[in-house]
Each structure stands twice: as structure tokens, then as C-alpha cells.
């Protein structure tokens, strides 16, 4: 298993399906849970996949070329490759490492000293695992996740752990909702925590904001499913698709923290996977029908229409960290596959390549927590050592000051 692949028992059912079809539950014979759903009151509800807005053919798209401006990431871990859910999200003060033999346990360390701060564990349930640890200040938000096979009957759990006192408090989802079964649908930016909740029985997504140990719904999507969100200043982008036919086109929706939602992109292509807004610009990616893993990155703003990549962006890899947008790309160098991290800020004349792997090494999508970008570099499987990896981090605030 490669360094950031979800553990096999989670994704085996999805090997031959699109990501949307997998998350829709069409591979499972387990009936959806059924129970009464309390009213969500005044929470805005978005009806996705209504008639498309009028398509306006963009003016000539300017292709932005890449320049090599390699940064110097700091190595924080080297050893047995973790699975995707085990990749530490490094913050300005802390990081966590999962127990290599127990999916229910992890240890939290001070980033700069390496001193152990707290041990984290969830009940030893064979059908659940410790899915995510996210930091804000001296708190950690811990996600307890069910196996994908149980997504129709089980939901996620979120707890807030005070790293100074060790006190842990479960965060209840907004009234009438459950937490998503997917651990990656929680994110932080500048102290703001958002997470995806879902309506019981239907798994229709609702975006929620967490303040302390209180969660409140921001908006919901009717007749849709979602498995991905990204956070940026003042907004959250979500990937949605119709729940009754996951093979239809996906949409990117941008939602303000006040609950106002609009669609991103121009519907030129069928599949949208990434989308952020930054400094008045929309940066997004899309790919053609039948293509999942690779897409093209575009940017629209100030009356300009830019193409920031060829069709070599890894779908789902885009993140805002600090003042810039980052994503993963792939290309061939001397006939061998190579991966890189790209960086762009509206107004820049070029896209910067800030990190590049050695040929035939693997690279995880970047993750951001408190302005710290972390990623995993792994060599291909070795019969003697298995898959080994190195986990690095970059302080994007230093890049922003350059």
C-alpha cells in the first residue's frame, strides 16, 4: 500500500468505482439507517444541480508558466509509511504520530522539541479507527471514524482535547445531524474549524462550524452527497454531486461562513475537484468525463482568465495555506515519473515549483494546519523494508514574506 492510500479494508469496495460512486453507498447492501429527522430551522439549504448558469466563453486564457523556486522543508519523521489517515498534520506547535501497530492510538509531540505532550486513544473497536487529529492553539480535535463498509449505519465522532490539561470533551453535531463518516472532512484556517455533518439516513451533507465544543450548521445541500472540503479566509469550498446518480457531473460550491453559497468554475468540463477563493480570485480545477486523477488548474479574477497548469494536477490536492494556493502535480523527468508541489498567489507572474521529488518517488497531497504545510515523500515498495516515507513541513508564513 502506498504512503497515503486509505487502509485496504476501507477502500477495497471502491477499487473499480469513481470516488463519488464509492461514497454514495452503491457498493453496499446495508440499508441506510432510518430515524426521524428533527427540523434544522433556519439553516440555508442549497438545491444543487439546477439548471446551469449561462455559459460565457472566457476570453483568451493566458497560460502561466512554471518557475523553479525550491524551498527547504524540514524533516519531521522518517520510517514506516503511514496510511493516508495517519499522515500527521503539522501545526505551528504540535504534530501527531499514529501507533504503527494500532489504528486506535496516536502520540502528540511538540514540534520544535519532539517532547511527548499527550497520548491519544479511542475505544479498541475493530470496526472503527482514529481518523484525524487537527490542531488549533493548544487544542486538538480528534476524529473517531467508522470503516467505510459501515458508512450506512455508523457516523463519525469529534472530540476536543485540551493539550494543557488533558481534558477531552465530545463535540456534539448540530441538532438533527450526524458527523460525516469521512475523517478528512474537517479543516482549520486561522483558528476557524469547520466540519461536514450529514442528515441521518440520507447522508445529505451540511457544513458546520465548531467553536469550542459547540457546533452550528452553516448550510445544507439537498439531494446531494459530498466527500471533500477546503477552508480559506472567510469561505469553505465543498465538492458535491447528485445522490441519485453519482456518475453525473460534480460541482464545486463556495460557501461563506455566513451561509451564502455560489457555484465555482465555468462548467466547461464535467468533473470539478478542487476550488478555493483567495484575494478576490477563484482558483479551481476540472477534468473531462471519465478522468478522475488528473485535472487542469484555472484562475479567474480581475477580468483575467488564467490557466495555471496542464492536465497534470492531481485532483483533490489543492489547499490554501497562508497567503497562497498549493497543489500537487506530476511530470516526467529523464523518462521517469516525478512529482512536485506548486504555489501561486494572485498577482504572481509565474507558478512556483517549491518542492520536487526524486524520480520514481511518491508524493502525498499537501495538508495545511495553522499556516504549516506538511506532506509525505515515499519510495516505491521495497520487498525488504516495505514502503518507507519521509514527512516534511514548510512554514508558509516564511514563504509569504519573501
Automatic annotation (TrEMBL):
Keywords: Signal. Residues 1-23 form the signal peptide. The keyword Signal applies. It comes from the Bacteria. This is Lipoprotein. It comes from Trueperella pecoris.
Amino acid at each position: 500500500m502506498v504512503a497515503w492510500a486509505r487502509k485496504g479494508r476501507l477502500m477495497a469496495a471502491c477499487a473499480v468505482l469513481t470516488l463519488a460512486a464509492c461514497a454514495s453507498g452503491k457498493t453496499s447492501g446495508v440499508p441506510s439507517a432510518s430515524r426521524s429527522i428533527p427540523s434544522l430551522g433556519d439553516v440555508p439549504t442549497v438545491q444543487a444541480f439546477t439548471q446551469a448558469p449561462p455559459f460565457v466563453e472566457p476570453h483568451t486564457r493566458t497560460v502561466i508558466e512554471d518557475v523553479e523556486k525550491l524551498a527547504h522543508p524540514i524533516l519531521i519523521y522518517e520510517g514506516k509509511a503511514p496510511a493516508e489517515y495517519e499522515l500527521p498534520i503539522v501545526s505551528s506547535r504540535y504534530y501527531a504520530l499514529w501507533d504503527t501497530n494500532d489504528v486506535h492510538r496516536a502520540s502528540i509531540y511538540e514540534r520544535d522539541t519532539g517532547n511527548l505532550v499527550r497520548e491519544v486513544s479511542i475505544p479498541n473497536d475493530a470496526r472503527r479507527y482514529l481518523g484525524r487529529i487537527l490542531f488549533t492553539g493548544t487544542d486538538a480535535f480528534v476524529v473517531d471514524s467508522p470503516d467505510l463498509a459501515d458508512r450506512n449505519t455508523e457516523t463519525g465522532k469529534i472530540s476536543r482535547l485540551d493539550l494543557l490539561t488533558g481534558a477531552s470533551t465530545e463535540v456534539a453535531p448540530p441538532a438533527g445531524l450526524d458527523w460525516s463518516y469521512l475523517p478528512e472532512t474537517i479543516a482549520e484556517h486561522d483558528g476557524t474549524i469547520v466540519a461536514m455533518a450529514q442528515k441521518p439516513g440520507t447522508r445529505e451533507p451540511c457544513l458546520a462550524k465548531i467553536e469550542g465544543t459547540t457546533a452550528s450548521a452553516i448550510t445544507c445541500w439537498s439531494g446531494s452527497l459530498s466527500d471533500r472540503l477546503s477552508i480559506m479566509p472567510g469561505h469553505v469550498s465543498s465538492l458535491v454531486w447528485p445522490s441519485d446518480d453519482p456518475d453525473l457531473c460534480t460541482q464545486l460550491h463556495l460557501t461563506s461562513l455566513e451561509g451564502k453559497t455560489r457555484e465555482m468554475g465555468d462548467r466547461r468540463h464535467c468533473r470539478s475537484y478542487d476550488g478555493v477563493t483567495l484575494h478576490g480570485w477563484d482558483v479551481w480545477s476540472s477534468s473531462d468525463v471519465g478522468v478522475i486523477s488528473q485535472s487542469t488548474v484555472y484562475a479567474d479574477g480581475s477580468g483575467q482568465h488564467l490557466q495555471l497548469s496542464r492536465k497534470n494536477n492531481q485532483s483533490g490536492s489543492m489547499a490554501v495555506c497562508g497567503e497562497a494556493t498549493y497543489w500537487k502535480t506530476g511530470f516526467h523527468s529523464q523518462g521517469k515519473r516525478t512529482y512536485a508541489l506548486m504555489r501561486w498567489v494572485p498577482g504572481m507572474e509565474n507558478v512556483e515549483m517549491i518542492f520536487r521529488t526524486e524520480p520514481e518517488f511518491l508524493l502525498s497531497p499537501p495538508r495545511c494546519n495553522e499556516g504549516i504545510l506538511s506532506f509525505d515523500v515515499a519510495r516505491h515498495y521495497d520487498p525488504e523494508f516495505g514502503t518507507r516515507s519521509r514527512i516534511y513541513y514548510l512554514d508558509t508564513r516564511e514563504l509569504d514574506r519573501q
